[in-house]
Amino acid sequence: MTNSTRHIRELIGENEIEQAIDRLLDLLYNSVEHDLSDSAVLQKSRWAEYKRKNVSGLAKNEDIDGIRDALLKIVRELDNRSIKTPSEPPQTYTPPRMPDVPPPPPPPKAYVAQCFFNGDPNTYYVTPNNQIVVVNPMSNFPVAVATRTASLNPAFAWIYQFPNGFYYSIDHNGAIWGVNAFGLPMQMGYVQYL
Known about the structure:
Elements: H1 2-13, H2 17-29, H3 34-56, H4 61-84, E1 113-117, E2 123-126, E3 131-136, E4 141-150, E5 156-161, E6 167-171, E7 175-179, E8 185-193
Helix pairs in contact: 1-2, 1-4, 2-3, 2-4, 3-4
């Protein structure tokens, strides 16, 4: 182990931090030194954060010095432990067995239908309480855009009603109908019931 740790020290001294971390993790992977493995993984994440900051110009010399010092402490501790314990066969780590837990019940139905419009890349969802929402792809948060109301015309199943009074009519086959610029009915999209 001394040769391996010496090589890791040399990599740290040559400022090859990423290679030193990878070599250290390889060395600790099959060992029983789980606390040192955890510390090495932490340094790997600190190194990734340093590289990210370095690209944006926010990295500090103290950051890399701290990583370098922590790696040297891990290597030093690894050497000390190998001297204290005689060469015993390595014990393999077996994680504790978790008790069998039944799967969680299925979540309540969040949406009852999806609305697709021609030329619109968004998908609109109808909630059980008759709100029509679009899910923001950046935050995965639904935003209410309209409501589903009953239709007074028996030819249509329901109305897609916007707050400003504009609406689309949905027929019993799921087709979404609107009016084009000439005042003629036009299919604007379709509804898929879930």
